[in-house]
Design goal:
Helix content is about 45%, strand content about 20%. It is of the alpha+beta class.
Length: about 200
């Protein structure tokens, strides 16, 4: 019998960062006292070029060294924190932080805390059968959109009904369907598995 649960690699991936950007941003802003959170993928040249030149240099330096940086700006302090063990898969940029002295040890502590929480988020917000974002993250995304004042959107629900009553074949059918939907719409972004073969695209 095939094992029904998805076994994920222990390494944090760019897909993890994209899928979990909302809870990661809320955690990082709470921990650091910063007003703004954004992130740039390791190979995302387009996202890098729209940043201010000083930010581009800092992000490139963090990508190359894997070491976090802090710098002063008009609104306070900005932080550049690598995400992922080994070579960073992304760099988190926190701006508008309260003025304080960030030692190398304090920055490294924030990097380790983000990595630890991101790994926990990955398990907490994953639907075990398909490995996709689950109902908890779906609800959190909806609440975030409403809090931002967004009252319009499109929600597509798709139910895959397994043609077999055999549990193993039904699991395999839903997993295969989830993989197909992920290949169409992307495994990150706004694709969710709500359970029982019901998928949501927000």
């Amino acid at each position: 019998m095939a094992f029904p649960l998805v076994m994920r690699d222990s390494q944090i991936t760019l897909e993890d960062v994209e899928r979990l950007a909302l809870p990661l941003a809320e955690l990082a802003k709470t921990r650091t006292g910063c007003d703004d959170f954004r992130w740039v993928g390791a190979d995302d040249e387009a996202a890098l070029t729209v940043l201010p030149e000083t930010w581009q240099k800092a992000v490139s330096a963090v990508m190359a060294s894997g070491e976090p940086q802090a710098g002063a700006e008009a609104g306070g302090v900005r932080l550049f924190l690598p995400i992922g063990s080994g070579p960073p898969v992304a760099v988190a940029i926190l701006a508008g932080c309260a003025s304080r002295r960030w030692s190398a040890e304090a920055l490294r502590e924030e990097v380790d805390a983000l990595a630890l929480h991101l790994a926990a988020f990955r398990e907490y917000y994953a639907e075990p059968l398909t490995g996709m974002a689950n109902t908890l993250l779906f609800q959190r995304q909806l609440r975030h959109l409403l809090a931002q004042g967004q009252r319009r959107g499109v929600l597509v629900l798709l139910e895959l009904y397994p043609p077999s009553r055999d549990a193993e074949r039904a699991w395999a059918y839903v997993q295969k369907g989830g993989s197909y939907l992920a290949s169409l719409f992307g495994a990150t972004g706004n694709l969710f598995h709500l359970g029982s073969g019901i998928f949501a695209l927000l």
